Amino acid sequence: MDELDSAIVRELQQDARQTNRSLAQKLGVAPSTCLERVRLLHRRGVVRGYHADIDPAALNRPVEAFVSVQLRPPSRQVIEGFKAAMFALPEVLAVYVVAGEQDFLVHVSVPSLDTLHSFLIDRLTQRREVTSFRSQIIYDSARKHVVAPLD
Amino acid sequence: MDELDSAIVRELQQDARQTNRSLAQKLGVAPSTCLERVRLLHRRGVVRGYHADIDPAALNRPVEAFVSVQLRPPSRQVIEGFKAAMFALPEVLAVYVVAGEQDFLVHVSVPSLDTLHSFLIDRLTQRREVTSFRSQIIYDSARKHVVAPLD
DNA sequence: AAGCCGTGGCGAATAGTGTTCGGAACCAGC
DNA sequence: GCTGGTTCCGAACACTATTCGCCACGGCTT
């Protein structure tokens, strides 16, 4: 993970579809060298994949929210089961198992507030391991696509 | 946004680097057709970009957390200023302006618990608009890369 | 110091790919 | 049935990915 690798990672985070040639040119190395580095980053698991970023509105999902959930009991089995169940739901974008008063943070995106309400009462209230939950509508958000190494 | 567009969006979310030819073959259309559709999705803003997914551990950021922050006063100016200030910090992955008791949810990733602590006391406690905050360490997470349209 | 060897980068060659563009097919509306 | 618009197609061409033999460099041993 030298300077060249970091630069490749940075560039591919910014634009994963740029050609290997332009990438090589930007970094001042031969295309063949660049290609080999990219493949190594893949094999080492540094690069986990390439994904298109899609506007949620185009997918009819303009409303986003975080739902904090508390479970009982917070055993491995309950946690794993709940995590898998949430992740399988189409409304769910991401699932986070966290420390603190709440055990879970579930990131959801839905077509409307009605849909969100339905999600809460049909998919959460239903489950017996859920003791309480609280939802936070997302008014505005900003996510980074390029993350630099720290230290 | 017909069936073909949806299929393209699905495929490009899964693998943004696949060739236009293989994409066209999977969907049963000519490469030229496929290319034109992809460009249109771009121009319409449906596809916002293509990004490599990088292992946080490789960037020396194995510890992740959500920090909920409450601001005073929750005016537009304070919110916008805080949002911009957080987003500019290298530790921050994403910023969410939310409804509820807390006003902000800040997703951070750092090299260690020490670094997280430093972040909290140096970057948050410092700011006078921050009245309180609470951090939730992320034990485990799962994020979807392919999101389907709802309804 | 000389020789050896592993590593990593390079560049030419080839197979494969993106991109363009003229034409064909389809569908409304009149 | 004609017209205008839209969409898709496929061949052609420029460009790109990928391979592979070669070379330079740096660390070892002798």
Automatic annotation (TrEMBL), chains A, B:
<dbReference type="InterPro" id="IPR019887">
    <property type="entry name" value="Tscrpt_reg_AsnC/Lrp_C"/>
</dbReference>
<dbReference type="InterPro" id="IPR019888">
    <property type="entry name" value="Tscrpt_reg_AsnC-like"/>
</dbReference>
<dbReference type="InterPro" id="IPR036388">
    <property type="entry name" value="WH-like_DNA-bd_sf"/>
</dbReference>
<keyword id="KW-0238">DNA-binding</keyword>
<keyword id="KW-0804">Transcription</keyword>
<dbReference type="Pfam" id="PF13404">
    <property type="entry name" value="HTH_AsnC-type"/>
</dbReference>
<dbReference type="Pfam" id="PF01037">
    <property type="entry name" value="AsnC_trans_reg"/>
</dbReference>
<feature type="domain" description="HTH asnC-type">
    <location>
        <begin position="1"/>
        <end position="62"/>
    </location>
</feature>
<protein>
    <submittedName>
        <fullName>Lrp/AsnC family transcriptional regulator</fullName>
    </submittedName>
</protein>
<dbReference type="InterPro" id="IPR036390">
    <property type="entry name" value="WH_DNA-bd_sf"/>
</dbReference>
<keyword id="KW-0805">Transcription regulation</keyword>
<dbReference type="InterPro" id="IPR000485">
    <property type="entry name" value="AsnC-type_HTH_dom"/>
</dbReference>
<dbReference type="InterPro" id="IPR011008">
    <property type="entry name" value="Dimeric_a/b-barrel"/>
</dbReference>
